[in-house]
Write a structure and sequence with these properties.
Elements lengths: L10 H9 L2 E4 L5 H13 L5 E2 L18 E4 L8 H18 L5 E9 L5 E4 L9 E8 L12 E5 L2 E5 L6 E5 L5 E3 L6 E9 L7
Antiparallel strand pairs: 1-9, 2-3, 3-4, 4-11, 5-10, 6-9, 6-11, 7-8, 7-10
């Protein structure tokens, strides 16, 4: 099988983050790679756990706010190397171009059953600023607008709805944009992650 040439750089992502704080990247991985990740997500679906809100002692389950199931990915997961290597390339590019000081990546599979949603929120825990850049990669084949499930990003220019079509990557500054996941009428699969800065040392 001949793969189409992959875009080597991320100039469009760098420019989008620098100019607007967010960017879309279509074809982040090729179709075969997206299909493999979707199949892996379905294969491991029984091991997903209900996602919570908050952190540490304040963590709770509240399906009135968030209804997705998640499975965290290990950085050495051999079945996700194409994704993790591509994200590592993006991290290096953002550090080199925008001096963001991104040190680590945390990410998980997310599955939204039909009817599930995630209310408007910000991707930073109160009192912490280590999550710097949010990335969301969609794994849904043949997704149509009428299926719902859009990511609604609240930008300075107004809400922007992103279709969760397989291969589309959304990148945005974690501390800047509130966003929500709209209900869908079919299962919606993605990988969500955050490039993190190191916590400041306490002197």
């Amino acid at each position: 099988m001949t793969r189409r040439p992959r875009v080597s750089g991320f100039d469009y992502v760098v420019e989008g983050l620098a100019d607007h704080g967010w960017a879309l990247c279509h074809g982040f991985l090729d179709g075969a790679e997206i299909e493999a990740l979707a199949a892996l997500s379905r294969e491991r679906r029984a091991t997903f756990q209900h996602a919570g809100i908050g952190r540490a002692a304040g963590r709770a389950l509240d399906t009135a706010i968030r209804g997705d199931d998640v499975l965290w990915l290990d950085e050495g997961d051999p079945d996700a190397q194409a994704l993790l290597e591509r994200l590592a390339d993006l991290q290096a590019t953002l550090n080199r171009s925008l001096y963001l000081g991104l040190a680590t990546l945390e990410c998980h599979f997310a599955a939204y059953p039909a009817g599930a949603f995630y209310k408007r929120h910000l991707d930073q825990h109160r009192g912490q600023d280590t999550r710097a850049v949010t990335v969301v990669l969609y794994l849904n084949r043949d997704w149509l607008p009428e299926h719902g499930g859009q990511l609604r990003l609240y930008t300075e220019a107004g809400p922007v709805d992103v279709q969760p079509q397989g291969g589309t990557l959304v990148v945005f500054l974690s501390d800047r944009f509130e966003h929500e996941v709209m209900p869908a009428n079919r299962e919606r699969l993605s990988v969500s992650g955050w490039f993190r800065r190191r916590e400041a040392a306490v002197l």
